[in-house]
Amino acid sequence: METVIRFENLTKEYNMGKVSVKALRGVTSDIKAGEFVAIMGPSGSGKSTLMHILGCLDSASDGRYWLEDQEISKLKKAKLASIRNNKIGFVFQTFNLLPHLNIRRNVELPLMYSGMNASRRRTLAEKVLTDVGLDDRMKHKPSELSGGQRQRVAIARALVNNPTIILADEPTGNLDTNSGNDILSIFSELNNLGHTIIIVTHDSAVSERADRSIKIIDGLIVE
Amino acid sequence: MAISLKESIQVGLSDFWSRKIRSLVTVLGIVLGTMSVIVVLAMVNGINKQTLSWMMERGGLAKITVHRNWEYDGDGNERDYFTLKELFHIRELLPEAEYFNPSMGDWGRINFQDKFIWNRVQGVVPDYQYIEEWTADQGRFISGFDIDQNNDVIVIGSKVKEELFANNDPLGEYITFKNRRLKIVGIMKHRYLKNSFNVGNENSLDYLNRRSFIPISTMINKISGKDNVRSLALKARSAEEAPALAHKLENILLNIRHGENVFNIESAQEEAQEIEKNARTFRMVFFLISIISLLVAGIVIINIMLATIQERTREIGIRLAVGARRFDLFIQFLVQTILVTFIGGVIGVGAGFSVLNIVSKYLEFQLIAYPGMIIAAIGVSVGVGFLSGIIPAIKAANLNPVTALRYE
Questions:
Q1: pLDDT tens by residue, B120-167
Q2: Residues 6+ apart with CB under 8 A from A173
Q3: Are B312 and B15 in contact (CB under 8 A)?
Q4: What are the phi and psi torsion angles at A125 (to 5°)?
Q5: Per-domain residue ranges for chain B?
Q6: Complex ipTM, two decimals?
Q7: Is B225 helix (H, G, I), strand (E, B) or coil?
Q8: pTM over 0.80
Q9: Nearest one of A187, A203, A206, A184 to A195, comparing CA atoms
Q10: Chain-chain contact of A100 with B402 (C-beta, under 8 angstroms)
Q11: Cβ pair B2:A90 closer than 8 A
């Protein structure tokens, strides 16, 4: 399988006044296309920091990161935005939907920033929402949906631009067991369809669904 | 990859609508500022037009008037007045004046049978009616024959007729003024200035309707007994010729009074130019004041938009996560602020016109708004939106995606 993500010696240091905190202390790994990977670790271990760097939301203090053979660490902010728009789909623990937009328009959001026209956006958003089983909720606001449904909207939004990787940060953390299992099943299904899935979690039940786990403790990959 | 302007406007409108109360509070300053721009400019225009209409009603822009100069420290002797002989001499020196009317007024009781009114009676010559573009409605005006013969005739104003004769015909009747019986030979046309600032129930031209006119020779020889004419009015052939005529007259008057500035000369044309100049200054001053009030509104908008961005930090993080560029967010928030001020400007213009309608209706005073004022008012609002939107938009665009996503 082709390597889709490769990072070498990534470090991340936060300066908080006179104190500096090292969230990542030089991590190296790679992820193949079509893999389902769980990044595991306790709170404060640096797993979310790694996800933010892999998702181009943040940059490393040092080290190198390649996404599909493109070195990300040297790119400017506008180019990083373009990569987030085209190649990465995010799913967050708290769903992060815009409350004043209906769910169709929430799903359209990445397409809007890709410059797609309104009618094509609408068609694509409706298709993806149908795929995640929300075809009857298009005009509902996020507040009118259950937690599981909101997370499915977030997955639809992550998928709508047909990204290279889907990055999920504790996607079941705010859900009950049944809804959490539903969401994990969707991720498994997407993985079976060929999507590369990276889930950040501290829940071992989640990691069991993954092909492999990357465990981080105190900013270092331990296995 | 970029969000289009149309898209930014749609997002802005959607945000405006989803936060109605805040949006309305945000635009309130702009609404009031724009409204004041419209109302104040329309009032200045109205006052300007009103003054010019009044001048047109009082003989037009070709009219020149001469009065005693109250700043001249005279001693009340004959040099402070004209004699009829002097006036005839001045008339000969000014062939380019189309009309020439010396006038001499006196206050007193006009009695008719058991009724009387206090009235200003004006001694004039026939040219008065051409200078003032105002003549008798019934009967006739003062004639050259009346002047030559010192006739005891009077032409009364419409209000005089109304108060002394009600619905009866006064022509041919006799009234007494300063113990002299005068035969009524004419009634002046009623004067009325449309859209005027009324004083109580009085039209601003009603004071003319209360006047009466007699031959100036009768006034001098039979009533006052003094050959001292205080005022003079002339009319040039056109408004354009008036300033030159006024200048020539000034030189003549200075000559006959040996360089002393005894008389004051006013050219309606020059006054109109002065009025227009003052109106321009007023317009500019009021416009600047309105702009300052709009800038204050702009500062309020900056505050509200900064608070809005603080409140929407997580939304900004979400937008950044799904691929918004910093420039997209900058444009989105800038367009949103401009949109808010544009909507405020439009509401303000609407409110301004509503105020103008009400004011015009109740004050019987014409307020004049031009399309240019609408464009200026909305343009300034949009400009304020642009200026006040930049700082919040920069703040939104510079948010760190991770920090923004973690914002509670």
A1: 999 999 999 999 888 899 999 999 999 999 999 999 999 999 999 988
A2: A93, A201, A203
A3: no
A4: -60, -40
A5: 5-55+275-406, 82-229
A6: 0.94
A7: coil
A8: no
A9: A187
A10: no
A11: no
Residues of chain A contacting residue B320, judged by C-beta atoms under 8 Å apart: 57, 81, 84
| SS3 state of residue B182 | strand
- Give the length of chain B: 408
Q: Which amino acid is at A4?
A: V
Rounded Cα distance, B214 and B223, in Å: 10
Residue-wise pLDDT for A70-90, tens only, equals 999 888 888 999 999 999 999
List C-alpha distances in Å: A160 to B7, B81, B271, B297: 19, 96, 73, 42
Q: Is A95 on the interface with B (CB under 8 A)?
A: no
What is the per-residue pLDDT across B219-266, written as a single tens digit (0 to 9) for each? 999 998 888 888 899 999 988 888 889 899 999 988 888 888 788 888
Residue of B315, B326, B402 lying closest to A57 (CB–CB): B402
* DSSP of A96-139: ---TTS-HHHHHHHHHHHTT--HHHHHHHHHHHHHHTT-TT-TT
Among B267, B316, B214, smallest CA distance to B58 is for B267
Share of chain B above pLDDT 70, in %: 95
Q: Check: CB of residue B228 under 8 Å from CB of residue B82.
A: yes
